[in-house]
Amino acid sequence: MSHPERLSPPGGEPVDAIAKPPSPNGKSSESLTEFAARYGLTQSAARPPMSRYIRDVWQRRSFIWNFASAKSMSMYTSSRLGQLWQVLTPLLNAGVYYVIFGLLLQSNRGVTNFPAFLITGVFVFSFTQRSLTAGARSIGNNLSLIRALHFPRATLPFAFVIVELQHLMVAMGVLMVIVVATGEMPTFAWLLLIPALMLQLLFNIGISLIIARIGAFSRDIQQLLPFVTRSWLYFSGIFFMTAGLANRDSLKDHPWVGKILEANPGSVYIELIRTSLLESYPKDLAKFGWGHHHLWLYGLGWALVAFVGGFWYFYRAEERYGRG
Amino acid sequence: MADVKEKTKKPVGRTDKSRQDIEQPEVVIDRTRDPIVVVDGLHIIYRVYGAGGDKGSAATAMMRMVRRQNRPQMKEIHAVRGVSFIAYRGDAIGIIGTNGSGKSTLLKAIAGLLPPHRGGVLTDGQPSMLGVSAALMRDLSGERNIILGCLAMGLSPQETKERYDEIVEFADLKPGFIQYPMSTYSSGMGARLRFAIAAARTHDVLLIDEALATGDAKFKRRSKAKIEELRKDAGAVFLVAHNLDVIEETCNRVIWLDDGQIRMDGDPQTVIEAYTDATGK
What sections of the protein cross the membrane (chain A) (predicted)? Predict the structure, then answer.
């Protein structure tokens, strides 16, 4: 498709003669295509208009949910500990990071409740990270489904993000226990977790749709993606306070660095959840003169931009998924 | 995650110079019937990569990038060469031909899975394709596959529940297998379940690529009845099979593809007889 001119056909085939047969009842000028158009036939597998596409996706919502549940269930069936891994994997990750960053590198400066701070960061970021990874594979790994049945392809990235959301729900349960165990009581601010996670969900669906389209046509992205998400992880203030970093002497003269790190969507959703979940965290931020209410605007902005843009971008190639 | 690549069993390395053009039958428009698929002067050219020869090391890949060459050993295959025909509502069309004659490619093009290089395919409604490829969702149980398949086709959860028993009955799996992952199914069982799921909804155009070949006699009988039913619902069914008996029993029209071109198009007996004579089977 990228070099259409390379595919110019060898000449001398009687195509045009065949395409325009002399019609028995005198309408000799009508080609087959014109004949088909007169009966309202359309190009096979053309992309539906956007409004119908959105309706189709909405109509498949129970498919999205059921597909996600089935995938979640089947994910760990071959391992002995089964669904327990949903909790164990993030906990082990958090444990490793705690040893390295909390104990060895002492990056816990300025944070009152470092274990809860760190684990929130790891859990929330892994939702985004895993959504991206799953999104990149969502088309390529389901080719037989795509080729057999006709359905809006955007439902697949949606479903894979919902799988990750279901995992996150389990992880959030664990997280709440950890928060209470580290001495912070539930507050009404915990209710803000719901809108914060909704915004993150929208954002994740958006970027998964983008990466799904890229991944569908170039498999190279799957080699590159772990590197991208790993780099993003280090920039997203998971093991250290972004506010603390920006206030360092070496960065004091460059306030824009702090601004960029703060507006980074990876960090925005983590900070929203930390400030909602940990009573002590907004006070930690205040010590550096950083507020957190404007983060809701960032979160909303990123969610809308990613979701609308991602949906549009994915939709533009709808008729080409599964080709080859 | 094994079903990423589909097998391609296409001939490699034939050049266009050595291929002969045959005089393809003229398309006559039947104005008393409703067309459902119109294929107009269709050419399909696709590329295969890695047909061998390259050492495949990182260094050679790098050199290729530097020289801005295309991927190595890329061959262009002109699989369908100027095919035209009209399928009408109620048609069940068998497509026959030797291996590599372009049958599967033609079906894929009708399904919209291969972009036409020249010419076009016009259809009413969205064609659905049943191929020989692996299960719909290998790691999920047959039960799940039925539910998800139905929902994906756009049935509501209520309709899915209603049709569930019918699908299970049609697929006629061994007791208990419906709860096992589809990766444990034999190819015949998988084909049966896929066909049963796809047949749960009326399709305007159903493309069946060897999917019935692995079934036993009982299943063939029932799938034939199902195809009849689909035809009566004013759809069209395309059937690719090497088993000529199946085609003769199921189809009302047969297209004989030879090296990417239509050699003959007509009623089953005549075409199959000519085909058998020509191939010496």
Answer: 84-105, 111-128, 156-182, 188-212, 224-246, 295-315
> Which residue, among B137, B147, B151, would best test binding to A if mutated, counting the most A CBs under 10 Å from its CB?
B151
> A290 burial class (0-12, 13-18, 19+ CB within 10 angstroms)?
buried
Contact B153 A150 (CB under 8 A): yes
Q: Which residue of B has its CA nearest to A10?
A: B16
For residue B50, pLDDT over 70 is answered with no
Which residue type is seen at B37? V
Mutation test of the interface with chain A: which of B113, B128, B265, choosing the one with the most A Cβ atoms within 10 A? B113
Quote ipTM for the complex: 0.70
Residues of B within 8 A of A46 (CB-CB) are 112
pLDDT at A197 over 90: yes
User: B153 — contact with chain A (CB < 8 Å)?
Assistant: yes
Pairing mode of beta strands B92-96, B261-266:
unpaired
Residue A122 one-letter amino acid: V
Q: Which domains does chain B have, with CATH numbers?
A: 16-127+203-279 (3.40.50.300)
Question: In whole numbers, what is the pLDDT of chain B averaged over residues?
Answer: 79
CA distance A225 to A219: 10
| pTM exceeds cut of 0.80 | no
Write the single-letter amino acid at A139: I
SS3 B238: strand
Query: What is the average per-residue pLDDT within A239-263?
Result: 80
CA proximity to B106, closest of B252, B272, B240, B246 = B240
pLDDT value at residue A157:
95
Nearest to A212 by CA among A315, A299, A128: A315
Q: Distance (Å, rounded) from C-alpha B228 to C-alpha B25?
A: 27
* Dihedral angle computed from the Cα positions of residues B236, B241, B243 and B247, in that order, rounded to the nearest 10 degrees: 10
As a dihedral over the C-alpha atoms of residue A238, residue A240, residue A241, residue A243, rounded to 10 degrees, the angle is -120
Q: How many Cβ atoms sit within 10 Å of the Cβ of residue A84?
A: 12
Alpha-carbon torsion, ordered B159, B163, B164, B169, to 10 deg:
180
pLDDT digit string, tens, across residues B106-149: 988 888 877 788 888 888 877 877 765 545 677 888 888 889 88
Q: What is the dihedral of CA A228, A230, A231, A233, to 10 degrees?
A: 120
- Chain A, residues 5-34, CB within 8 A of chain B, namely 7, 9-10, 12-16, 18-19, 21, 23-25, 31-33
Dihedral class, residue B97 (left if φ above 0, else alpha if ψ from -120 to 50, else beta): left
Which tokens belong to B280? 């010496």
Question: Which of B140, B148, B158, B202 to mutate to probe the A interface, most A CBs <10 Å?
Answer: B148
Return the biggest CA–CA distance within chain B: 63
| Burial letters B151-162, b for 16+ CB under 10 A, else e | bbbbbeeeebee
